[in-house]
Amino acid sequence: PMAVCVTLDFSIDPARTAEFLALIKSVAPDTRAYDGCRLFDIWTDQDKPGHVFFYEIWDSRAQQEKYFGWRAETGLVEKIGPFMTAPPVICYFDKFDG
Q1: Is the pLDDT of residue 9 over 70?
Q2: pLDDT tens digits, 79-97
Q3: What does the pLDDT look like over 20-79, one tens digit per residue?
Q4: What DSSP string describes the chain?
Q5: pLDDT of residue 2
Q6: CB neighbours of 77 closer than 8 A, spacing ≥ 6?
Q7: Whole-model pTM?
Q8: Quick one: pLDDT at residue 1?
Q9: CB proximity list for 76: less than 8 A, separation 6 or greater
Q10: 53-77 burial, b for 16+ CB within 10 Å, e for fewer?
Q11: Quick check: 22 and 28 in contact, CB under 8 A?
Q12: How far apart are CA 23 and CA 40, in angstroms?
């Protein structure tokens, strides 16, 4: 099966962005080592403080959703909640070979 691209668009309190990124950096190695994760990149907006974008490639949507479940169980989702000013926008993409 073809890989899936997953994007997460975060609106973070600009005053807490550095703290948020430090937290994410501390857990990123476990994300990158998780079964099915091919790529986990974090991007920050040059023009809009607090706009943080995750770009991920996974073997399958099911593996990424399993990973999300694990992150919820371990408390990370709850931990990052206070940093957000809006719910994250999560999208799943199939690659178009054009």
Answers
A1: yes
A2: 999 999 999 999 999 999 8
A3: 999 999 999 999 999 999 999 999 999 999 999 999 999 999 999 999 999 999 999 999
A4: ---EEEEEEEEE-GGGHHHHHHHHHHHHHHHHHSTTEEEEEEEE-SSSTTEEEEEEEES-HHHHHHHHHHHHHTTHHHHHGGGEEEEEEEEEEEPP--
A5: 86
A6: 68, 71
A7: 0.92
A8: 67
A9: 27
A10: ebebbbeeeebbeebeeebeeeebe
A11: no
A12: 15
Paired sense of beta strands 4-12 and 84-94, if any: antiparallel
Q: Cα angle at 26 between 49 and 9, to 5 degrees?
A: 40
Question: Which two tokens mark 81?
Answer: 């909640």
What is the amino acid identity at position 49? P
* Placement of tokens 């937290």 in the chain: 23
